[in-house]
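Pipeline run #58 for the internal structure catalog. This entry was flagged by the ingest filter as a single-chain record with no existing model, so it goes straight to prediction. Upstream metadata was stripped on purpose; only the residue string is passed forward. Reviewer on rotation: M.T. Logging verbosity set to normal.
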Amino acid sequence: MDEESPTREIARRVRDERRRQGMDQRTLALVANVGVRSIHRIESGEQTIRLDILLRVLRALGMQLTVTSRARS
């Protein structure tokens, strides 16, 4: 099975957490102070989402983005 791309993984995790917390996209947008379209773009896995928007959404969900070094092959 193919490994999930980082963009798709973020999209899935954001969507799953939003749903787990019982929020619709509009509510999350209000809590994160972003547009509903931004939530849709994140959850659709669009690759051109602004980092500051993504971080606001993650923060609103109680999540964080962690960056680590990849093992070199």
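catalog note: The chain has a mean pLDDT of 94.
catalog note: The chain has one domain: 6-60.
status: ready for reviewer M.T.
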